[in-house]
Amino acid sequence: MQIRKYSLFIIIFFITIPLHSQFNTYSPYTRFGLGDLARNGFGQNHAMGGTGIAIHEGNRINYLNPASFSSLDSTSVYFDFGANTFHNQYQTEKFSNTWWNMNLHHVAFASSMGKYLGFSVGIVPYSSIGYNIKQEYDDFSAGAAMDTYYKGDGGIMNFYLGGSVKFFDQISLGVTMNYLMGRLTRERKVEFPVNPTYSPVSSLENFDLRHPVFSFGLQYKKIIKDKFFFTLGGVYDLKANVGATLKYNVVNSIYPYESIELNDSVTVDPNFILAQDTTLRNFIIPQKVGVGIALGIPNKLTITADYYMQDWTGTLSGENYNLTNASSMHFGTEYTPDAEALRGYHKLITYRMGGYYSNYYLQVNGHQLEDYGITFGLGLPVRTVKSTINVAFTLGTRGTTEYHLVKENYGIVTFNVTLHDLWFRKRRFD
Question: Does residue 71 sit in helix, strand or coil?
C-alpha cells in the first residue's frame, strides 16, 4: 500500500517542526500557574466532549487511557497527527478583543505486539502560556503615571510512551510514562510616561521543567451477543514532586542607548542589573483520578461519560491568585449508520457530539474559573487507504466579567488524520 511508503516520512516531518510552534495562545489567565492546561485527546475525543477513559476501540489512538492500546488490531499500525485553529473573544465590563491562531497539536504512533499487547508513543501538549497586557495607572492629582507591561510565551510538552496488556479478552491494564519538558517565559516592564527622568525597570523569569509523570489505566469491556457492549474505565496519574529551574533577572534601564563613561575608570551600562538569581523551585503536580463509562452497539453507536478530579491546592500560588481543587465532567456520543456499507458514503461517516463542564484549576481574585462548552464533529473515512480524517468543533466559555475578571468565548476547530496500515499480514502472493 502507498501509505506504507509515506507514513514514516510524515511522522518525521512533523517531529522536526520546532516545538515552540505548538505554543500559541493569547489568554490573560495563562499568566498564572502552569498556564493553560491542554485539552487532552485527539479530534475523535474533542468531538465527543473530551471523553475517552472508557473508549476501547481498535480504529484510533486513545492515549487518554493507556489500557486502550491493547484494543488495536494485531496486524495494524497507526499514525496520527493533527492541528488546532482557535478563535477567541475576550470581554471585560468595558472592553473586548478578539484573537485567532493555528498550531500543530500532536503526532503519535501506535501498534500491537501480538493479540493481547499494544503500545503507543507520541508528542502532545501539556500546557502553554501566551499573553501581552498593558495596565495604566494614573495619579492626576500628583501628575504621575505608570505603565506596566506583562508578556509571556512558551509551554510544556508531553512526550509519552505507553503499553497495555489484555486478560481474558475483557480486562485491559495499561501504563504510560509522560515526560514533561519545556520552558515558560514571563516578562514584566514598568515605564513612567510623564516622568522621563525616571528609569524603566524590567524583569525576566524563565521556568524550565523536565520531569516524568506516570499514569495507569484500567478498562473492562463486555460484549453481549455482538449486539450490545458496555465498558468501564479508570485512570490514575501519580503525584510528582517536581524540581524546576527558575531563572530570574531584574534590570534598571538607566540610559536608553549606549554606555556612559563617568570618568576614566567608571562606565555605566544602559541596563543595570538589580537582581539576578537561579534557583531550583520545588512544587507538586498532584495526583489525578478519572473514571468513565461507555455503552452502545458495536461498530454503530457509542454513548460515553467521564469524570476527572485533581487537587492543585497549595501549588504555585501567588499575588491575587492560587491554584485549587479542579474537577470536570464530559459527555459524548458517536454514531455510524453502516460501517460496512458498499454504497452511500454518508453511511460510512461517523457523527459525533458532546459537551463538558469543569471547575478550572485556577482561582483569581477569590473566584474559581468555570469552563464549559459543546462539541461536535465528523469522522470521514478514506476507504482506499483505510484511514480517517477527523474534524471537531468546540464552542465554549471560560471566566466571567464579574470580580474584575475576563470572560473568554472561544471556538476551536481540531483537525487530525489517522493513518492505518497493515504491516504484519503474511501474503501468499507478492
Answer: helix
pLDDT at 6: 45
From start to end of 298-349, where are the E strands?
301-311, 321-323, 325-335
- Count of structural domains within the chain: 1
Side chain identity at 384, as an amino acid letter?
Answer: T
Q: Range of 266's domain?
A: 2-422
CA-based nearest residue to 201, from 145, 268, 259, 273 = 273
In the predicted model, is pLDDT for residue 264 greater than 80?
A: no
Structural contact between residues 106 and 112, judged by C-beta atoms closer than 8 angstroms: no
259-283: b or e for each residue (b if 16 or more CB lie within 10 Å)? eeeeeeeeeeeeeeeeeeeeeeeeb
Residue 41 lies in a domain: yes
Number of residues written out for the chain:
430
Do 378 and 350 form a contact (C-beta atoms < 8 A)?
yes
Cα–Cα distance measured from residue 306 to residue 358, given in angstroms and rounded to the nearest whole number: 12
User: 411: buried, middle or exposed (CB in 10 Å: 19+, 13-18, 0-12)?
Assistant: middle
Residue 109 belongs to domain with CATH number: 2.40.160.60
Listed ranges 7-21, 177-191, 310-324; the one with the highest mean pLDDT:
177-191
Looking at the domain assignment, is residue 430 inside a domain?
Answer: no
Asked, for residue 429, whether it belongs to a domain, the answer is no
β-strand partners of 317? none
